[in-house]
Amino acid sequence: MSTYCKEVRQLGFRLYAMISESLGLEQDYIKKVLGEQEQHMAVNFYPKCPSPELTYGLPAHTDPNALTILMMDEQVAGLQVLKEGRWIAVNPRPNALVINLGDQLQALSNGRYKSVWHRAVVNSDRPRMSIASFLCPCNSVKLGPAEKLIGEKSPAVYRNYTYDEYYKKFWSRNLDQEHCLELFRT
Ligand SMILES: O=C(O)CCC(=O)C(=O)O
Ligand SMILES: [Fe+2]
């Protein structure tokens, strides 16, 4: 377990470097700006459900953190993402991890990257498990769009805030309400 946590963290840092570059930022920009990172893990267990159409394993949400690395049950599907107004199943593949961009990368990229809406459905035949590793910014760092991505033609879409402020706001609402970042628009 501890090896997995360390490896996942390194994978996250490699992805940060690539995402930074893709935005025209210094390679170490995202890692630096997020500060001393916290890392949380959730082991989600979804029991089988006699009436799966009446409920969700997890209601629709975006992840409030920066990047989520998800290890999914290889036998049982359940994750869905919202694409162009439709829910699409993300079916498991052997030895594959699912990467979700969270709200902080949407904010940092000034909206160029989107934090995807996703949910988990249940089924009546089989229970399901997933293991989510959440890479989170340091609570006290100042977050918001990267300076370099703000200009006359692309004004800042979001204001600056601390992760502490964001996280409290995120959990003060229902998960499937409007995108939490909407509350941080300039
Ligand atoms: O179980 C899944 O596939 C999704 C889990 C998830 O979205 C989460 O833990 O935030
Ligand atoms: Fe999630």
TrEMBL record:
InterPro entries: IPNS-like_FE2OG_OXY, IPNS-like_sf, Oxoglu/Fe-dep_dioxygenase_dom, Plant_2OG-oxidoreductases. Pfam families: 2OG-FeII_Oxy. It comes from Aegilops tauschii subsp. strangulata (Goatgrass). Coiled coil: none annotated. Keywords: Iron, Metal-binding. PANTHER family: OXOGLUTARATE/IRON-DEPENDENT DIOXYGENASE. Residues 37-137 form the Fe2OG dioxygenase domain. GO terms for molecular function: metal ion binding. PROSITE patterns: FE2OG_OXY. This is Fe2OG dioxygenase domain-containing protein. Signal peptide: none annotated.
